[in-house]
Write a structure and sequence with these properties.
The protein is α+β, with helices and mostly antiparallel strands. It has a domain of about 100 residues: Immunoglobulin-like (Sandwich), CATH 2.60.40. Helices cover about 20% and strands about 30% of the residues. It has 1 helix and 11 strands; from the N terminus they run E-E-E-E-E-E-E-E-E-E-E-H. The strands form 3 sheets. A 5-stranded mixed β-sheet has the order 2-10-9-4-5, with no helix packed on it. It has a 4-stranded antiparallel β-sheet with strand order 1-3-7-6, with no helix packed on it. It is elongated. It starts with 19 loop residues before the first strand and ends with a helix.
Length: about 170
């Protein structure tokens, strides 16, 4: 009996998962200060599932302590988050990501970077801002009453003058 070997030929392309193309900050970058926004850009769009958090960014220092980031936002292939208010010491950091690519596969990884100086991120100004308040002058009710009475007297004077002129004009003729 003759046995033919079976050969399985597939015409579909290999399933390649999405990969990181660039990031802010770049991997293994040393920078002066902590950036206020962190991002990772992939080679295909990321998906979002309503009501679920499937794409995340997490910031840790070398000791594994987590730092606060805003919720990750997705814009096509980019996931980004703003760095929370606080003090960030000089040193090594890891930006960990977990995203779901358009093909539905989760992709995880990390970006390492370092800062050379302490960074303070916050909405509080470093020096207090002082402003001086100069109240607007308010017209008093006595001024208003004075102008009303003056206007009324002027109106009475005009009416009296007009009546007198009429009276003179009618007595001549």
């Amino acid at each position: 009996m003759l046995t033919l070997p079976l050969i399985n030929v597939s015409t579909s392309p290999a399933n390649a998962h999405t990969s990181l193309e660039l990031s802010t900050p770049p991997n293994n970058q040393s920078m002066e200060l902590m950036p206020t926004e962190l991002s990772a850009t992939f080679d295909e769009d990321l998906i979002e599932i309503e009501g679920e958090v499937v794409n995340t960014l997490e910031l840790q220092n070398a000791d594994g302590a987590n730092y606060e980031l805003s919720s990750a936002t997705i814009a096509g292939p980019v996931v980004s988050a703003k760095v929370g208010d606080g003090e960030y010491p000089a040193g090594d950091y890891l930006l960990k990501y977990r995203v779901v690519s358009a093909d539905g596969h989760p992709v995880t990884g990390e970006i390492s970077f370092s800062t050379q100086s302490v960074t303070i991120i916050g909405s509080t100004p470093s020096e207090p801002v002082t402003t001086s308040y100069i109240p607007e002058p308010v017209e008093s009710s006595s001024n208003t009453l004075f102008f009303l009475l003056g206007g009324l007297m002027l109106l009475v004077g005009i009416l009296f003058g007009v009546k007198r002129k009429r009276d003179r004009g009618s007595s001549i003729g």
